[in-house]
Amino acid sequence: MGTTAYEHWIRDFEAARRERAERGDPEWRTGVPLHPAIRRSVQRFQVGEDGDGAELITKAETAGDAEYASAVRMFVAEERNHARLLALLLASGGAPVIASHWSDRVFVTLRRALGLRLELLVLMIAEVVALRYYRALRDGADDALTREVAGRILADEERHVPFHCHRLRRALRPLPPPVRVLVTSGWRAALAAVALVVAVDHGPALRRLGVGRGRFVAEVARSSGPVAATMR
What we know:
Layout: H1 7-23, H2 36-49, H3 54-62, H4 66-92, H5 102-112, H6 116-140, H7 144-172, H8 177-201, H9 203-208, H10 213-231
Helix pairs in contact: 1-4, 2-4, 3-4, 4-7, 5-6, 6-7, 6-8, 6-10, 7-10, 8-10
């Protein structure tokens, strides 16, 4: 029998789950207080990772592909684990999580108002921004614990983007080529705008991590080209 469309992704998520279980958590007691700018930034990203994913799971189930819905549930579980890791990182430095942030409320509202295809396009904006953010946190944080947590999350995000690209490529395939180009060009423009907002909102943390606002926006925008091409 041939491999089904999402069998590979299910195996990938399962392998990552087993690896996490074998590896265990970081050594939380090695934590040090986070720089205030980093702490505020991590608190905001933690809120963004902390959704329950119920709406996305429901839409995936409604799409009628049981294997895709299963893979989405595994994706959501990884996102919840990111929220857990960030919460424990904050706690190790004596910082609390925050209840909400305006940027997360905007994303959640947009995603819930849309169908699966458009929700995934919005979700992919957050995922691509997260790739650059967690890379900056991994490479620029002062302490080993923060670098380790960021590295673990980044490794997951680097798998999530191709997973969503796979689904979006299938979802956009029925559209005429010029429409696909229009959709992905609009997505790139929206991503650049969101990257600019994130750069302004997290500017002090990005500077502390050695990434200026302009560089952050430019690198996110540049990374969007191959992603858009894959979706097309």
